[in-house]
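User: Can you model how heme C sits in this protein?
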Amino acid sequence: MTPEELLAPDARRPLITLLASHWVSMLGVALATTAGFSWLFVLPLHLHGSRVDNPYIGILIFLIIPAILFLGLALIPAGIFLARRRIGRGLTAVVDSRVAWRRIGLFLGLITFVNVVIGSQATYRAVQHMETEQFCGQTCHVMKPEFTAWQHAPHSRVECVECHVAPGASGWLASKMSGTRQLTAVVLNNFPRPIQSAMESNRLVSSLETCERCHARTGETGTGVKVISSFKEDEKNTRSETVLTMHTGGPRGGIHGAHMGPGIQMRYAAADAKRQTIPWVEYRDAKGAVKTFAAPGNASSLASLPRYEMQCVDCHNRPAHSFEAPDRAVDAALRAGELPVSLPFMKKTAVQLLTAGYATEDAAAKEIPSKLARFYQSSYPDVYSRQAPEIAAAGRTLLAIYNRNVFPDLKVTWGTYPNNLGHTDAPGCFRCHEDTKQIANDCNLCHQMVAVDEPSPEVLKTLGIAP
Ligand code: HEC
Ligand code: HEC
Ligand code: HEC
Ligand code: HEC
Ligand code: HEC
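Assistant: Here's the modeled complex, given as structure tokens:
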């Protein structure tokens, strides 16, 4: 094109000359390339999956970077339009296309250089920081209860994403989207307290894609022996042992076989989101015969309830975030020697102090140790004078138990998240196994009691198990 042609007000000019003629389109180019580069750096870093499913990275990938990209892409035509108008009005000289190419080339080079040097470093550092447990423990404050419980669980070496994110790109995408939604709720401070359990909000990934990648359904466990030591709430903290055999079984029978054996399918309807009330169960055996068990009541209201396929997590719902019952936590600490059995009424006082209710973590941190000390000072002054350091240590142990189970600001307290594996602290197995639905609940169906609350059961000596 000759200069005259270019200057003509209605001339058709190469886009490139227009692009280079206005700062708005140049800014658009800069933003779009920066967004492109950031994606290039963040995506591969994150596709490996991270230790903690981090919603902040989701925000970066799904909100911030696309916003910058689209802003950039919108600014380019806007700048071209503005350039065309200014040239049309004769306000600007037209750039020669060779100059335009050079200008754009230089500009892109500069932006790329800046992106590579600063962008890659900054994004890399930011993403790395977001993946640290420190960041999650401290910043993703909402998940503190689960994070804390996970650190004490048998699965503390299993990453969060192994159970919470389905494998493959779609699982990764779904998790990032939901993480982004959750973070928005945190920023707007409108998330529920306590936050819903994964089953309650129906966000649980199928056990086929989580548990069963590590634990084969065909695993045979046979019958195990459980020894449960507990301490009475008397002055001596009297210890006793309960021994039971547990028919866990495997594909051919027992507890696992009955619900998860080959060909067996079970569905149930729940009347509440937490799935604590189960009025209807359907059992399909390996031969395809179907039995249904329903609580007496209105059949049409039963039919309207949501139905779920039975999975590992219907019994093992707390494999990674098991919150304790206060008396069991105290029993465990007494058994481990973290609380001294020698202190009179240790069990009773400990349970009382743990369950007293404190407005904040700080209040608990002040009151639990000081009230324990005061109890011994006033009721057992001679014990206090002899065992003051042990009493102080016991106060710290109690506080640690409290801090891993109760989170006042998130409204998580004793029993907020019930454990379905059992029936003594929460309905658990008895949600289904009870008379009104006529599902077997004989005491020897699942386990055999060998000793109940005995001081020193013979059977433990026979088995060579020192309690
Ligand atoms: C071994 C599997 C497993 C691992 C590992 C795991 N979780 Fe969970 N998580 C679960 C299951 C199962 C539930 C559902 C419990 C329910 O619905 O009763 C759950 C529930 C949750 C909930 C919902 C609130 C609640 O307590 O029900 C949050 C939040 C959570 N997990 C966060 C995490 C974080 C953070 C990590 C890593 C530090 C993690 N999880 C690791 C299995 C796991
Ligand atoms: C990444 C592999 C992995 C995944 C996924 C996983 N587990 Fe495990 N699980 C393990 C390992 C390893 C152990 C043994 C840990 C130990 O004994 O310290 C274990 C132990 C267990 C135990 C015995 C715990 C105990 O108290 O000794 C149960 C029950 C269990 N897992 C259930 C589950 C369930 C339910 C899920 C799915 C929600 C699941 N696991 C997901 C690897 C996994
Ligand atoms: C009907 C309830 C129920 C279902 C469903 C269930 N389990 Fe279990 N499971 C139990 C009970 C009860 C125990 C024994 C617990 C004990 O001894 O304290 C157990 C024990 C285990 C153990 C420990 C075994 C050992 O060596 O002692 C593992 C691992 C386990 N289950 C994994 C799974 C997996 C994986 C699934 C899903 C494929 C599953 N369970 C489904 C009830 C269930
Ligand atoms: C969602 C409902 C549901 C839950 C929860 C449930 N079960 Fe079952 N269970 C059933 C049904 C239904 C049957 C089959 C009953 C029948 O055939 O009469 C069954 C069968 C059994 C059997 C075999 C009984 C037999 O006659 O041989 C055992 C053992 C068992 N369950 C143990 C457990 C244990 C342990 C738990 C808790 C950890 C549990 N169940 C939780 C519904 C449930
Ligand atoms: C449907 C299966 C099932 C039936 C029926 C059943 N139990 Fe259990 N029971 C369990 C499971 C599972 C546990 C928990 C094991 C664990 O803690 O891991 C348990 C635990 C216990 C414990 C130990 C509690 C503790 O301190 O930890 C006692 C005691 C007990 N059952 C008594 C009974 C009695 C009494 C009956 C009859 C009324 C009964 N059970 C019927 C499945 C069953």
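A couple of observations from the model: Residues 451 and 457 are 6 Å apart (CA to CA). DSSP finds 17 helices and seven strands in the chain.
User: Helpful, thanks.
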